[in-house]
Amino acid sequence: MKLATTALAAGISALCLAPAAAQTRAPLSILRVIDADRYDPVRSTATSAAEVIFMLADTLVSLDFDMKTIKPLLATSWTVSPDGRTYTFDLRRDVKFCDGRPMTAEDVVYSFKRWIDPATRSPVAARAGFVKDIRAADDHTVVYELKEPSSDLLYQLTLSFASVVDKAAVEALGQNFGVQGFNATGPYCWASWTPRQELVMKRNPHYTWGPPIYRNPAPQIDQIVWKIVPEANTMMAAMQTRQADVTYYPPHIAIDTMKRVPGLNVQQQKNYIYDVFVGFKVNKPVVEDGTIRRAANMAVNKDAIAKAVYFGNGTPMHALLSPTVIDYDAKAASLMPAFDPAGAARLLDAEGWKPGPDGVRVKDGRRASFTLYGIRNDTGPRITEAMQADLRKVGIDMQIQLWDATVAWGKLATQEFDAFILSYPYVTATEALNLYFKSTQAPTPNRMNWKDAKTDALLDAASTANDPAARTEANAEAQRLLTQANVWIPLVTQQMWLVSGDRVEGARPHGLYGAGLYKGLDLSLKR
Amino acid sequence: MLRHVLQRLLLAVPVLLGVLLVGFLLMQVVPNDPAVVRAGPTATQDVIEGIRRDLGLDRPLWLQFALYLGRLARGDLGVSIINNMPVLEELGNTIGPTLELMLASLAWSVPLGIGLGTVGACWRGGLLDRAIMMVSVAGVSVPVFLLGLGLVWLLGFTFPVLPFSGRAGPLWTLEGLAGIILPALTLGGVFVGPVARMTRSAVLDVLGADHVRTARAKGLSETAVVLHHALRNALIPVVTLIGLQIGFLLGGAVVVESIFSWPGIGRLAVGAILSSDAPMAQGTIIILSVGFILVNLAVDVLYAVLDPRIREASGP
Amino acid sequence: MSETIALTPEAAPHADFAVARRPSLLRALLRDPLGAAALAVVLLVVLAALLAPWIAPGDPYGGDLANTLKAPGEAGLLGTDGQGRDMITRLLFGLRTTLGMGISAVVIGCGLGGLAGFAAAYYPAASGVVMRLMDVLLSFPAILFGLALTAIVGPGLRAVVIALSVATVPLMARVVRGAALVVLRQDYIEGARALGMSDARILTRYVLLNCLSPIFVFVTLRFGQVILLGATLSFIGLGAQPPTPELGAMAADGRNFLFFAPHVAVLPSLVIFVIVLAFNVLGDSLRDALDPRLRR
């Protein structure tokens, strides 16, 4: 009885409190499918970390919605020396950390040195180029000196890895920086993180220095909650029933439906770059044969995969790199074999791969069979099964082994497999090609074990070019060479679709390194 | 009675040691390198080697184990290899929501199951019994994810009356209470069937037994017979069942936690084991196993309370 | 755990039970319409699984990406899945894999568990060690075993079968031991011992036969649980690997399309449901048929 009375009283008081609570706006909730392991800019390569860090911290320069144009952010202007080895950045004077402390050039120098310090164990240190020295010329000038020119440096400095962080917070938190706390100069400040559940950020009250790609340089939302919803159906229903405000991870199958739901705003970022590809370990039996690789490239129906697996919301790739990217080469694309299963069969026949008793081709007593490793995500199983069926039709047997996301990276670092499927975001051709195809990058991320002196020379030329035309030419040569070698089967460029509810205004998809909302500016809530 | 409980507690010690040993060995043979997991997809070999040294993974196995046991003895479960979060803190954060979910599920499914089972047994063979058995057999047979997704589709999506995107707050708030309804309906939904079935069998067994026949012969009313003699004895196997089914419930909880984005220990355990986060996986295994042992201990004690013969047998 | 776990002693079978029961079992089972129906479903399902390669209309692996997620009737009687494969074919082959997984796990788990249970009941000296070992096994929920095993041997049917077997062993051991202890308390066992019968003879002739009732009930119930648990493990991605057709994995595969093409997830789930239902009803019928006091 007493319990019932207490419950009743609690209920009544809750009801009375409800109107008062409604006056403060509910936080903006963003849904995503996976959490990051940590939010330390230089210690995570996950897009799920980058999308949050972009809002918590700032970089010297920013990237426009076209994914090509560099714009100011913490640096108002910069100069590059004629030899391309010295970058001088002039910093804004009005920048403050979340705790109110003014930012100086020393903070930038500290953050960059931490990024490249071997003791930090940063997996992304190479992105900073061959650094000779980084120093503060005065309180508002940073000098970035390289041993050789880095044609890609400004683009790399737009990424979250190059974020400016607070030395005091890093030193106080140690390994727990980006786990239990954070302090930087982003439009939003770290409030709390419950791993695999939610990350809460609050408006940075000092912030007025947003990049010029936005209309309003100051944040207008008091609180943002990033929620993890792994289940596709739950995610979709939550958006449709307004339990959440924004997501750019809508299930592919649901995008067309969501476009028709009144009050849901669905926008596409047409310049988005996030490619899915299959790579071959070129020193493993069977797939070491360029004929097999070329035939496989011809046998896989990429259009059908884009249509069936992505429900039309994926773009089939007919080139090594996305046509949107800087230094994309159309001539290299024309060298990519077209979908032609009959041609693939003829090619295999001509090269001595004859059909065996079970339909799988054989040459010199070796079956045309190989094993592919990949990640078990929403599309992995369906793409690989479709490929498997396509390849079987031309007499190639592909065994599939998919792994849970966290285990997969360990498995993909081994030499157990012959081919692998991955997806990755990138900004420039220089970045993508240097990351994956340089011989020094083997065994990971150059999981193909592609060790070719000519490729290395071209990639070096591209990354150290001081002249954009030379860089473009070197990248083009490299694309042609790699396309003809069929080291990869490019499959699909994923599309970015930003879905927002009717409470949200000013949402526009960006998509740098997968970050759909980038700095989270121009966003506001109607109620 | 007290001696009985103490005896059980003492017997739980070797079980716990076994659990620790098996847990440690399992995590040691996992062929997954935590340093690689931590370094991420684009890391080079140098970085991976560096992280391995930082984490002490280059030390001999026995030393790692000894260091681990030493810390364990001081109540230190270590920190996550993946994100450096203290294991104890993560366990503390996730055990509550899981307990909440399990208790909320048991709170409605066990009474309902026992009620349905008893009613079925009393009207054995009748239309009501058949209907109840149909429902409970269906409940035993339905895959938990189908029930969960079906409920989301029906009550969250088609008729959007209940929230389903996670734990909105503690149970004593309105949001928290509303948020747990669908998950608890799902998890409890697969539990009503087993409880009803076992209750019915047990009550039927007891109704045919000598002392119940005697009670009937003494002219006691059927209600009195069922409530005082049959149900009391029948509760013993039912209690066992519930104790034994905690693991089954946990399996369901992992799925329910994933469907409803519930921040529980099931999802934590799955993630930790799959990412070879040894300290975290160890922690979840220890906590879950200790919980399981405690439940079984409680089951034993309940036996003693429910079954007078044991109470007498082990009394002082 | 200990002596206290014995099933209610009142349920003890009578001495003449073993002799009287045998001939009428099938007849008693068939007299119950539900039991007969369940038996028919089980036989049908087993037959369908055995004959899958010959009766399936399509290719379980090769799909047609131009024809994905077709509703039942639109393409084939039951439609197609996300890869454009015929659902009937996938279901028939899935049935084969799932039943194989369930049967292996139950046979291995119940075989080992039964041995452990009888040993613990018959040799009190072994009881403590055996049952303590069972307690350790029980302290690991099957789902954790499945996860850890997956990490070791890699995801796949093998890991699932091992995990389900290991999870079954202690449960079976407890049930068998409880039932055997009740039987061993009966006067006729003393009689048999006095007559100089060997342990093995007593165990097979009396104890095993008189424990069959709870064992049958447990095994049928357990079969359902094993199938469901296997489906749960597959749902988290630990079970059969693509493109192997397995009902649990198929259901998990289809869940992403639940709101758009529900048949892809619902049909395999329904088949799981029907199998488990049939075994559970059959178990009930068996129980009724085996227990003379309840048979009227």
UniProtKB/TrEMBL annotation, chain A:
Keyword list, A-Z: Signal, Transport
Q: Residue span of the signal peptide, if any?
A: 1-22
For the keyword Cytoplasm, the answer is no
Q: Report the locations given in the UniProt record.
A: Periplasm
Stretches assigned to coiled coil:
none
Extract the Gene3D superfamilies matched here. Dipeptide-binding Protein, Domain 3, Periplasmic binding protein-like II
Occurrences of domain Solute-binding protein family (ranges): 69-430
The keyword Membrane is assigned to this record: no
- Return the InterPro entries for the record: Peptide/Ni-bd (IPR030678), SBP_5 (IPR039424), SBP_5_CS (IPR023765), SBP_5_dom (IPR000914)
Q: Which domain of life is it from?
A: Bacteria
- Which Pfam families does the UniProt entry name for this protein? SBP_bac_5 (PF00496)
Name the protein family: Belongs to the bacterial solute-binding protein 5 family.
Q: What is this protein called?
A: Glutathione-binding protein GsiB
**Gene label:** gsiB_9
From TrEMBL, chain B:
Cell membrane in keyword set: yes
Chief location: membrane
What InterPro entries does UniProt report for this protein, alphabetically? BPD_transp_1_N (IPR045621), MetI-like (IPR000515), MetI-like_sf (IPR035906)
Q: Per the record's keyword annotation, is Disulfide bond included, yes or no? A: no
Matching SUPFAM superfamilies, A to Z? MetI-like
Q: Look up and give the membrane topology term.
A: Multi-pass membrane protein
Print the keywords alphabetically. Cell membrane, Membrane, Transmembrane, Transmembrane helix, Transport
Record-annotated ABC transmembrane type-1 domain positions: 95-303
Where does this polypeptide localize? Answer: Cell membrane
One Pfam family of this chain: BPD_transp_1_N
List the transmembrane segments: 101-123, 135-156, 176-196, 234-260, 280-306
Q: Which family does it belong to?
A: Belongs to the binding-protein-dependent transport system permease family.
Which PANTHER family does UniProt cross-reference here? DIPEPTIDE TRANSPORT SYSTEM PERMEASE PROTEIN DPPB-RELATED
The identity of this protein, by name, is Glutathione transport system permease protein GsiC
Please give the organism: Methylobacterium crusticola
| Gene of this entry | gsiC_6
UniProtKB/TrEMBL annotation, chain C:
State the UniProt keywords alphabetically: Cell membrane, Membrane, Transmembrane, Transmembrane helix, Transport
A Pfam family that the UniProt record links to this protein = OppC_N
Membrane topology per the entry is: Multi-pass membrane protein
**Location in the cell:** Cell membrane
Per its UniProt entry, which superkingdom is the organism in?
Answer: Bacteria
Occurrences of domain ABC transmembrane type-1 (ranges): 95-283
Q: Which residues cross the membrane?
A: 34-56, 99-124, 136-154, 160-185, 206-237, 257-283
InterPro entries membership: BP-dependent_transpt_permease, MetI-like, MetI-like_sf, OppC_N
Q: Is Membrane found in the keyword set?
A: yes
Keyword match Transmembrane: yes
Query: PANTHER family this protein is in?
Result: OLIGOPEPTIDE TRANSPORT SYSTEM PERMEASE PROTEIN APPC (PTHR43386), PEPTIDE ABC TRANSPORTER PERMEASE PROTEIN (PTHR43386:SF25)
> What family, per the record?
Belongs to the binding-protein-dependent transport system permease family.
Indicate what this protein is called per its UniProt record: Glutathione transport system permease protein GsiD
Q: Which organism is it from?
A: Methylobacterium crusticola
Q: Which gene encodes it?
A: gsiD_7
